[in-house]
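pinned: reference chain
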Amino acid sequence: MNTKRDFLTREIDKQVETVTLQMKHLHYEISVLMPLIKNLEEKEKDDVSKKLTFEGSALLQALVSLKS
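pinned: its structure tokens
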């Protein structure tokens, strides 16, 4: 039984590491996008902001649900 739990723990650790790396990459991508977004027209900025806010909110909700 302990071996099964150890395997599960290792798998979870691998997935957490993968997600963490993806989040770091997203942070980098957003920092690259910001100067480009600042040069857009207001309507285009709003559209990009809405899309990123929606997706960001979904990610935050998923992370918050881990605690409950």
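why pinned: The chain is about 90% helix and 0% strand. The chain has one domain: 2-65.
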